[in-house]
Write a structure and sequence with these properties.
Length: 457
């Protein structure tokens, strides 16, 4: 059966590219309502009315904040069909060990190799303390200390993602976080999945809870019976997870408010059309996932649609990929590389893959991207699974101000200031002058009584 791929095409010779880019950015922004028709129907079924995703999340979080674990378990039953109790919401140590013993040996070997690569990279970028010594024994310091307790959200709706465990847990471990608590849906791809549980055990994580979605986020953020609150929540998820993280921010820290996975491929006439199509499909199969090609080569622009149609036919998730390509994909023919770079910076994509004659030079000209993949032999999949940087990246254009998750996100910094009497005497006049101008005499007096100075202001 043929799977039609109806991907939008924009040609600078006939179309308004600025409007097309603006429309695409709007659809992929954190404010977008990217939820399937099935999801909307499920909302009505569970809540009895067509609530917006934000309304759903607010109701879930408020209920759990008020009623604790009983509310979280109730939502697990209503949303996931899981009959959980306080006694079995946490996966036992025995179940984790059994999963590890039953796991595929090649998977565990891959997990160990990937953990080593990610750990090596994350340890290399850790921030270090800084100190400036002053005269007379004074000093200034900037210190970094790891967070004590972090929650990891691991998806488990459509597929199992041990890679997300690696890309969230290992940076936290590199930073020295003491406690990691995992929430994962009570599904065959989540808390009942051997690969997920075995990977937790392999990484030394023994605190795993059968809670997904907004209810998992709320339980971590507020703390409920048997689940202590965390200091920060990280990890990807669907729209409801993203909105829940935004809702609880302030009670805890979060990594980002993630939208659909996305890629921009920049390619010229040297690119292999089949490779380009494969890279677009790889993001589209997240369903939803956004895939955008920007090229200034007419032959490539014309060739890619046929390659897309050929390849989705061969994929198990081809129908979902074709749907995403039609809903969130686009092909742009632009006049030159300069325009391509400018559009890329406007989009600020999660993933940027450059397949051009001088890919490194073009990469240096682009400011906004979560992660950049340079050259035809660096598909986004290597970043998803093994390279070293985390695959938890800014989406929806937020790469213009946000960064991908790293070990440094699990550190908090603080300053330490030590002045000897002589140091205070040297700065007293400036402090007193500014305090007087700002009408804060108590500040001024706290210095004057130590130095015997009077303000010159």
């Amino acid at each position: 059966m043929s799977l039609p791929v109806k991907i939008a095409r924009f040609d600078f010779r006939a179309d308004d590219l600025d409007t097309a880019v603006a429309n695409l950015r709007a659809r992929l922004s954190p404010e977008g309502d990217v939820v399937s028709e099935a999801g909307r129907g499920r909302t009505v079924e569970v809540f009895g009315e067509p609530l917006t995703p934000q309304d759903v999340v607010t109701r879930i979080c408020d209920d759990i904040r008020r009623d604790g674990l009983s509310a979280a378990l109730d939502y697990a039953r209503r949303l996931d069909g899981a009959e959980l109790t306080a006694a079995n919401v946490r996966v036992t140590a025995e179940a984790l060990a059994e999963a590890h013993a039953a796991a595929d040996a090649e998977l565990l070997a891959a997990v160990r190799r990937v953990r080593e690569r990610v750990m090596t990279f994350q340890e290399a970028l850790l921030a270090s303390d800084a100190r400036v010594d002053l005269s007379h024994g004074g000093y200034l310091e900037h210190r970094y200390r790891p967070l004590r307790r972090v929650g990891l959200c691991i998806p488990g709706g459509a597929a199992a993602y041990p890679s997300t465990l690696l890309m969230t847990a290992v940076p936290a471990q590199a930073a020295g976080v003491e406690q990691l608590a995992v929430v994962v849906p009570p599904t065959k791809f989540g808390a009942e999945n051997v690969d997920i549980l075995a990977t937790c055990h392999e990484l030394g994580i023994d605190e795993v809870y059968r809670l997904g979605g907004a209810q998992g986020v709320a339980a971590l953020a507020y703390g409920v019976e048997r689940i202590s609150r965390v200091d920060k929540i990280v990890g990807p998820g669907n729209l409801f997870v993203a909105l829940a993280k935004r809702h609880v921010y302030g009670d805890v820290d979060i990594d980002s408010i993630a939208g659909p996975s996305e890629v921009v491929v920049l390619a010229d006439g040297t690119a292999n059309a089949a490779y380009v199509a494969a890279d677009l499909i790889a993001q589209a199969e997240h369903a939803p996932g956004s895939s955008v090609l920007i090229t200034w080569d007419e032959e490539l622009f014309a060739a890619v649609p046929a390659r897309l149609a050929e390849q989705v036919e061969q994929l198990e998730r081809g129908e979902l990929a074709a749907e995403s390509l039609g809903e969130f994909g686009a092909l742009f023919l632009v006049p030159d590389a300069e325009t391509a770079a400018a559009i890329t910076d406007q989009l600020g994509p999660e993933h940027l893959h450059i397949q051009t004659a001088d890919a490194a030079a073009l990469a240096a000209r682009i400011r906004n991207a979560g992660a950049t993949f340079v050259g035809e032999y660096t598909p986004v999949a290597v970043g998803d699974y093994t390279a070293g940087p985390s695959h938890v990246l800014p989406t929806g254009g937020t790469a213009r101000f946000a960064s991908g998750l790293s070990a440094n996100d699990f550190l908090r910094s603080s300053s330490v200031i030590h002045y000897a009497a002589e140091n205070l005497a040297e700065v007293a006049e400036d402090v007193c002058h500014l305090a007087t101008r700002e009408q804060l005499p108590g500040h001024r007096e706290s210095v004057q009584m130590r130095t015997g100075r009077t303000s010159s202001a």
